[in-house]
Amino acid sequence: MTKVFTNGCYDILHRGHIELFEYARSLGDYLVVAIDSDTRVKTNKGPNRPHNSQSDREYVLRALKSIDDVVVFDSDEELSNIIQNYCPSFMVVGSDWRGKKVIGQEHARELIFFERIDGYSTTKTIQNLVNRR
Questions:
Q1: Going by fewer Cβ within 10 Å, which terminus of the chain is more open, N or C?
Q2: Residue 87: which domain range?
Q3: pLDDT (0 to 100) of residue 125
Q4: CATH code where residue 48 lies
């Protein structure tokens, strides 16, 4: 069985996320998506995030046919351990991670960069909603 792994916040799903999941799933038989805990999102993105709770984000992701498993992580070490436990053939991350240290990449056979789709960003979506008020 070929396992594929990706991770992120996935606070407000948009087309870019769905295309990433579909691409990642096309690489193998089993797609694992890890999501940042609510505490980690608040620490990394600010006190007003996440917009959707960890349990809601997990529920929505589990409903997608391209995703086989969803796990939650709270630290870099926990993320690395999760990746090591799954031992994926492929780890898929956004192209904005090129040239940067990707946590847990040493536990995957191959790191693959997914080209981000212009115009899709959760942070920008939230900012646009705030600006409308």
A1: C
A2: 3-132
A3: 61
A4: 3.40.50.620
